[in-house]
From TrEMBL:
GO MF entries: molecular carrier activity
Origin: domain of life: Eukaryota
Keyword Transferase: no
Coarse class of the protein's main subcellular location: periplasm
Short name of any one Pfam family annotated for the protein: SBP_bac_11
Name under which the protein is recorded: Sulfate-binding protein
InterPro entries: Thiosulph/SO4-bd
A biological-process GO annotation: sulfate transmembrane transport
Subcellular location field: Periplasm
Amino acid sequence: MLIRPPRTTVVSQTHQAATQLCCCSCPLSIPLKCSGQKQLLIRPLSLSITASSVNKRVAPRQSRKPNLLEALLQRPGILFATAAAGSVGLIALIAKLGGGGNSGGGKHKSGGGGGRDGQGPSDHAAGVAGRDDEDKPKLPLVSLTLVSFAVTRKAYHLITERFVKDYQAATGQQVKFRLSFGGSGTQARALVDGLPGDVVALALPLDVQKIADAGLIDGNWRERLPNGAVVAESVVALVTRKGNPKNIRGWDDLIREDVSVITANPKTAGVARWNFLALWGHRSKKGDAAALDYVTKVFENVPVQPRDAREASDVFYKQNLGDVLLNYENEVRLTNLSYKENALPYIVPDNNVCIETPVAVVDKNVKQRSSRTRDATVEAAHAFTQYLFTPACQEHFSDSGFRSIDPKLRKASKLPKVKDVWKVEDRLGSWAEVQQRFFGAGGVLDDIQRHVGEKRRREREGK
């Protein structure tokens, strides 16, 4: 039985890391009962929608693009913006889209399809379309796969849920999401190797550019969206043990011989590359030789390199390994929330790197749909990426621990102030130069890893 049963549309969300779209790795048609996969049925905080509320709101579309715009323009209270992406009109849904309760039972009201207290379809959504629409042809279901990095799970579960409701309320178009989370570098390689992703939201521009270089994303991806396609920001945080027994105060303490450092693997995790760049940038003003010596000493203190930011948290919090953890500030905050009374203190050092998390439509993949769904898929994918820049979505990012790009939210944020936050391009050169110099084959990272490996081999041999 596939995911469109007669009376219910079930939206599956991936709960596995890396490249799996579900636990049995079924890539496109996810069964309704997939062994081990969590199914989201009709409950608050799910992406499920009832067929009764969907079918009655659907109107026939004679010409897709004009009707998409008309549907948005005709809804009261809508603010919208358009941006060019080829010949496709992009829609950003900014305000409330109807009269239901809140989005999925959360605290940020979106109105569209929330029902009473977000418990189900509202009377408006279920009945206003009228009996005349019941026999009209339905728009084909659009299925989008969002491929993102590990620590965005909370934000994108909420945002995709909200988009499903808002987009259907505005256009009549049903959208279903599949979500895949894992290390950013791993996700980028999986997409290049054939993972069927339609939208990517990765940890750093380098990973999106790799997909573009493979011909899957148009070369102008950074110009198609606001803020250079960066939807949220963060900084590197240093997590210590309770009471900070090693008295770790900042970057310079990471090279002490009595300090054990946990950071993820730069080969697989975006966070680890940001950590690397933050470390290098801390000493770069003293010259490349000083920066190389400093970063090498830090990596000599790293006993293990987990696969991604979430696994790094598990190693530090659950396995109690290491004296200090380098991780995204947003990941640290979410982890501390889950650990409650066992939360750990953290420091946000000054002279910190601005972590930029970009998003892009995977153009080649969305255009490979059948003629029946191609236009609708392209429109929905571009509308979703625009939607991420709306105030409502920026609130979700902020609530998930990110530093919002929205000026009002940034001003109201209670996150620690950082005196000197610098961008990679301003201090270390273009991303292409950074990739070649630090992370490419035979680059600085490879040299450091080789040195550390040889040193440990000699230590094991007693030399």
